[in-house]
């Protein structure tokens, strides 16, 4: 609030002006613009369907692996297909982890780039909290895992990154099951947290789980990657050009020793988000990133991730006795406590500290228990956790089943606890959700997204 100048006198603002026009603090979880909230809601609906398919695939895999026909499941996982001359004669389980998850990370890369180029998170002030929370939400579980497994030996510490991931599809499926209407601000925070989490996870995979690196293949991968980038920057959508280049990039990255899913992210980062490089120009608007995401997200959420879950989640538990034996392994316990306790420490703790040391505060309708519920929900680390587990200890290793039990038990426990916490607040969430939908003037924009001037200043349609 600035002083007013009247003639030669400078008049300070009145107490009423200070209290009415100057907010005491900024919101910790800003609602964002209406177009962004609408886009996030639509995206989460698609992921919720994918999460339901993922859960079904995991249940089928667990049931089959613990049935009298378990040998058929193992044989299916180990069935090898592909051209041996290209060193791609791989098992179906490997194709699911290295191939199908590359599609998943391609879509995640598109979403990340879109958020930071054209989404609400292009504002560093809005991006800071979910990025900090995602980073701390990965560091704390890793630390918990290390503290519980240090001194175990036999390469136990190799799995430090297993409990760091968040499975957004699984989390949304849990919200759908308990019929929870999260407010727009919390939905946006959860999605952004998960997207940043995915990117940090793929960085960890590239840096810490790359073995037998072949730089020549990695250098060769830059050629189709660059050609792919040139074509998409020229807004060329021809699949018969782009798909072979993407496949060549994937194959060369796979041959280099770097996990092939990294290729998905690298390809995504070359795709333009806006029609025009000059944001706000006459041609500015949705670019190829949105087009590709619209086409590929159903394939990722509806096929790639569920198929990976089917091949990765099948672990022979052998009843409660077998479950108890697996959970005596400190690696499995490290995963469980990392997901359930570490995620809460990292996300809730960092969010509280951001609020404590800045002027940010919770919306008047929200409480810290809501942040706690989201932090627990982020402990569902199914898909990427299983992938990192295979990379850390190797498929078919002695610890493979223990790792899977730890991931499944930790994710299930986090899901149950989050459902209890968030369900208890559902009446409040429903009231906020109804307020966010209310449009008294029937102009197509809910009242909460309109400012005194008439529109949200971040809404390009205003």
From TrEMBL:
- What is the topology of this protein in the membrane according to its UniProt annotation? Multi-pass membrane protein
| Similarity comment | Belongs to the NhaA Na(+)/H(+) (TC 2.A.33) antiporter family.
Q: What is this protein called?
A: Na(+)/H(+) antiporter NhaA
Q: Which reaction does it catalyse?
A: Na(+)(in) + 2 H(+)(out) = Na(+)(out) + 2 H(+)(in)
Keywords of the record: Antiport, Cell membrane, Ion transport, Membrane, Sodium, Sodium transport, Transmembrane, Transmembrane helix, Transport
* Record-level GO cellular component terms: plasma membrane
Q: By its UniProt entry, which InterPro entries does this protein fall under? A: Na/H_antiporter_dom_sf, NhaA
Listed under GO biological process in this entry are: regulation of pH
- Organism, by scientific name, is uncultured Propionibacteriaceae bacterium
| TM stretches of this protein | 48-66, 86-110, 131-154, 160-178, 190-209, 215-232, 303-325, 331-355, 367-393, 405-422
Q: Which HAMAP family match?
A: NhaA
UniProt cross-references to Pfam families, sorted A to Z: Na_H_antiport_1 (PF06965)
Gene this chain is encoded by: nhaA
**Keyword Protein biosynthesis on this protein?**
no
């Amino acid at each position: 609030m600035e002083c007013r100048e009247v003639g030669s006198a400078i008049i300070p603002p009145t107490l009423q002006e200070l209290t009415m026009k100057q907010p005491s603090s900024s919101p910790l979880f800003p609602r964002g613009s209406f177009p962004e909230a609408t886009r996030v809601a639509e995206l989460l609906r698609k992921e919720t369907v994918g999460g339901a398919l993922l859960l079904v695939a995991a249940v089928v895999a667990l049931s089959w692996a613990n049935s009298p026909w378990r040998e058929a499941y193992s044989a299916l996982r180990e069935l090898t297909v592909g051209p041996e001359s290209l060193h791609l004669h791989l098992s179906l389980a490997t194709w699911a982890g290295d191939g199908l998850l590359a599609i998943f990370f391609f879509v995640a890369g598109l979403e990340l780039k879109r958020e930071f180029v054209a989404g609400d998170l292009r504002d560093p002030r809005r991006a800071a909290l979910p990025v900090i929370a995602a980073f701390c939400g990965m560091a704390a579980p890793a630390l918990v895992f290390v503290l519980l497994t240090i001194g175990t030996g036999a390469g136990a510490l190799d799995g430090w990154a297993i409990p760091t991931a968040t499975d957004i599809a699984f989390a949304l499926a849990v919200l759908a099951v308990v019929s929870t209407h999260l407010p727009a601000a919390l939905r946006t925070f959860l999605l952004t947290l998960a997207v940043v989490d995915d990117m940090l996870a793929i960085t960890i995979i590239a840096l810490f789980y790359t073995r037998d690196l072949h730089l020549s293949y990695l250098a060769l991968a830059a050629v189709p990657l660059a050609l792919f980038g040139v074509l998409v920057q020229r807004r060329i959508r021809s699949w018969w050009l782009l798909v072979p280049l993407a496949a060549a990039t994937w194959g060369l990255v796979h041959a280099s020793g770097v996990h092939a899913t990294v290729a998905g992210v690298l390809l995504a980062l070359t795709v333009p988000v806006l029609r025009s490089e000059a944001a706000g120009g006459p041609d500015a608007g949705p670019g190829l990133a949105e087009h590709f995401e619209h086409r590929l997200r159903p394939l990722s959420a509806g096929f790639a991730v569920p198929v990976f879950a089917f091949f990765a989640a099948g672990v022979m538990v052998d009843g409660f006795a077998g479950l108890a034996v697996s959970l005596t392994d400190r690696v499995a316990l490290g995963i469980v406590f990392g997901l359930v306790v570490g995620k809460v420490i990292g996300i809730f703790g960092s969010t509280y500290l951001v609020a404590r040391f800045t002027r940010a505060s919770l919306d008047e309708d929200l409480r810290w228990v809501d942040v706690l519920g989201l932090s627990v929900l982020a402990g569902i680390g199914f898909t990427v956790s299983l992938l990192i587990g295979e990379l850390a200890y190797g498929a078919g290793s002695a610890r493979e089943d223990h790792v899977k039990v730890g991931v499944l038990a930790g994710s299930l426990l986090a899901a149950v606890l989050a459902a209890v916490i968030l369900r208890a607040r559902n009446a409040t969430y429903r009231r906020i959700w109804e307020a966010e939908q209310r449009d008294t003037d029937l102009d197509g924009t809910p009242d909460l997204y309109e400012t005194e001037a008439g529109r949200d200043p971040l809404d390009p349609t205003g």
